[in-house]
Amino acid sequence: MDYFNPENFLGLAESEQNPDVHIVQLPYEMTTSYGQGTGEGPKAFIEASAQVELFDVRLGKDLPAGLTFSTVKPWESDAPTLRKQLDSMAVFASQFYTGTSFPIFVGGEHGILPPIVSASRNHPLVSPDLSNLTIVQIDAHADLRESLDDEPLSHACAASRSLDLGVGSLIQIGIRAFSQQEYDLIRSNDRISTHFARDLFNSSTGQQNWSKLLSQIKSINGPVHLTVDIDGLDGTLVPATGTPVPGGLNYWQLDEILIALFEGDCTVISADINEIVEQKDTPLTQFSAALIGKRIVSEHIIARTIGKWEAVKQSNDGEIEVDVFEKF
Ligand SMILES: [Mn+2]
């Protein structure tokens, strides 16, 4: 009989042997520009998840729905520099890319994305070339700056650094805060496809743009990493996140994207949910994040049950590729 464990995602029992899903907390906060508190975000996410309903209507079952889960002891590092912290995170994240498990990384600021992407090179569907990988990014911000405050590893550069690592394509959804340099890059770089919030939610042409977005998502091929910056949601749903922005996705729109992505042609190999900050007056921000986590897991399980999940045992000798931040 499963028991309720408040230390774990959704209170689910801990599985020590070859879990199907890993919940990986990355309490990382070094470059957040405005609000503070993403370092405590993962803990608040886990706590809030205890209040999330285990029944998922799309799945038709209570979670864990026959799968095994592990909520991993949070990553920590006392490395003195940003680069060394991120290298340590990449090493840590690599162990979850065996191909048999589905990892959900919980942050922490969006600066966690490049080390996660680097670690994904160990996944059998990606290995060894990141050009096979598509990143789907839900976010208010483009995160395509060259640097912020002279720091190229800032959260505001997370998507740029991921492209620098060699990612094949980047699909951005809900973007509504960006610089001219970022806008120019979006228009000139054919690896980037950006669906701006002002186009998706335009009162006359929005529906058409939304349909185009869904069909693009459904036709992605190959492995995908999904990165959900919770500020992609409308600021009213996540008021405690570092930089809440009006004019974002509502909950059902995000849900529709998840369904299209997991039912589509691609294989979602991993996901992250980031920029979570504990809200003190009401748990809304962390609860919104936890609900997204539950929906991602549920869609992953549906993908498994319809045979879309290509679980491939890691064939290499376990050697981990790291030190990718040297060049920045
Ligand atoms: Mn972001």
Layout of secondary structure:
Layout: E1 21-26, H1 41-49, E2 55-56, E3 61-62, E4 69-72, H2 82-94, E5 102-107, H3 113-119, E6 134-138, H4 158-164, E7 169-175, H5 180-188, E8 192-196, H6 197-200, H7 206-218, E9 223-229, H8 251-263, E10 267-274, H9 284-305
Parallel strand pairs: 1-4, 1-5, 5-10, 6-7, 6-9, 7-8, 9-10
Antiparallel strand pairs: 2-3
- How far is the first residue's CA from the last residue's CA? 50 Å
Number of strands: 10
CATH level-four homologous superfamily name: Ureohydrolase domain
Run of helices and strands: EHEEEHEHEHEHEHHEHEH
The molecules bound to the chains, other than polymers, are: manganese (II) ion
Which residues sit in consecutive blocks of at least 5 with pLDDT less than 50? 313-317
